[in-house]
Design goal:
Length: 385
């Protein structure tokens, strides 16, 4: 029996917000940029981004990525050679899918062995090698870690390519200056509010940028490309967030500070109680921790996951297999040598972190894990296999 589930989704229970649901029903405004959406967007900018820049709410982060990629690459529409999107393989399927829906072929880059962020030197080497075939850079802010956006500004300028940031797990993560990761970015930065994220709504996404004109285009693209006269002047789809979904997100925003603080305590408990594991090196000042990833070097990762499951502790291994080892992507992508991704994905585990867990639960899970490591004779601090 599972005593400690990997994840328990915790969106705000809307059954306790009946008055607010009634207001939506009474307004007869259910979607298409209604007042609950407007207020959510304003509050996200004010409360998470200190009033800097702007954002649009979208139905989910995958659609947010798609419209942002489409917008950034529109200037290449008549350049048939520009067909590549540089994407890490150590990410969730959505990053590469978003590029492929926009008709770009993933060109996978490796990650840094310590921060697990996309390796900018490898990206630059790929840009040198593939030059004008590259249409877009799609870095993922791995597990909420902070990308150095200044480096991406420089790459974008030097190679004349747009950048779209996949920051799916980054709401609540702080950059090196202590600001919400993404603050002040001129590129679109896309966050998820999926039920499994620390910022758990039901479904939903936020696209943030300091470039308000860019956001205006994305808003139009999210509504079939209609301009103010309902004439289509941009590529369009339906990526709008409903008013009920926006309510779910707004209610989560009100408690989000406590959510992040609690998750930080759980992860610090793991760090203190499992000193033999290798942790992701934070590049910013804080992470929002959708879960707690760690690296277990030496063979035995799968045995460890199975042994923990037998003790009622559910672990996961995000992201194993990485994208380039999944046939669908492998058949349709360019796969250079990815030594760090290969080693990291073989050794990674994700420890449970969720709002309903206590610090005592994290200690108990750590005890079980120490015991399993000793029983299986795994050397987590050993050399990577
Ligand atoms: N880019 C990146 C890098 C991402 O990680 C994601 C999403 C995206 C883009 C796209 O964002 P969205 O378009 O979704 O806004 C889960 C999430 O479904 C997915 O959103 C997330 N990344 C990914 C990292 O995790 P799965 O396929 O692993 O989910 P699943 O169904 O196995 O659930 C994970 C755990 O959560 C299970 O233990 C069950 C539990 N759970 C799940 C749901 C849906 C619940 O307790 N309640 C629930 O309602 O992808």
């Amino acid at each position: 029996m599972t005593r400690y589930p990997f994840l328990v989704s915790n969106p705000v229970p809307l059954s306790t917000r009946v008055e607010k649901l009634r207001e939506i029903e009474a307004s007869q405004r259910f979607t298409n940029f209604g007042p609950v959406n407007d207020r959510l967007q304003q509050r996200v900018v004010d409360e998470l981004f200190d009033g800097r820049g702007g954002c649009i709410a979208v139905a989910n982060a995958t659609l947010g990525l798609m419209i942002a990629i489409r917008d950034g690459t529109m200037r290449f529409e008549r350049e048939p050679r520009r067909r590549l999107a540089i994407v890490p393989s150590f990410t969730f399927a959505a990053t590469a899918h978003a590029a492929m829906w926009c008709n770009y072929q993933p060109l996978f880059c490796d990650v840094d062995p310590d921060t697990w962020l996309p390796d900018e030197l490898h990206i630059e080497a790929l840009l040198k090698q593939y030059g004008e075939r590259v249409a877009v850079l799609l870095p993922y802010a791995t597990f909420g870690n902070s990308l150095d956006l200044g480096r991406y500004d420089a790459l974008a300028a030097k190679w004349d390519v747009p950048v779209v940031v996949d920051a799916a797990a980054s709401l609540g993560s702080k950059d090196a200056e202590g600001r919400q990761f993404g603050s002040g970015s001129k590129h679109p930065v896309v966050y998820s509010m999926h039920a499994t994220k620390s910022f758990a709504a039901h479904e939903g996404g936020i696209v943030y940028s300091e470039d308000l004109e860019l956001l205006g285009r994305l808003r139009q693209m999210s509504n079939f490309g209609f301009d103010a006269n309902r004439i289509v002047t941009l590529p369009g789809m339906n990526a709008k967030l409903s008013e009920v979904a926006a309510l779910s997100a707004a209610e989560k925003l009100s408690e989000f500070g406590n959510v992040v603080e609690h998750r930080r305590e759980l992860v610090e408990t793991y760090h203190r109680n499992l000193p033999m594991l290798q942790w992701q090196r934070p590049a910013g000042t804080a992470l929002a921790y959708q879960f707690c990833p760690a690296r277990v070097n030496g063979p035995g990762r799968n045995d460890l996951v199975d042994a923990m499951a037998a003790r009622g502790v559910e672990l996961r291994a995000y992201f194993d297999p990485p994208l380039h080892r999944q046939e669908f992507f492998a058949d349709r992508s360019i796969v250079p040598d990815l030594p760090v991704t290969n080693a990291l994905s073989r050794n990674v585990i994700s420890l449970p972190v969720h709002d309903l867990m206590s610090v005592e639960d994290a200690k108990a899970i750590a005890r079980e894990l120490r015991d399993v490591v000793a029983t299986l004779n795994i050397d987590p601090a050993g050399a990577a296999d």
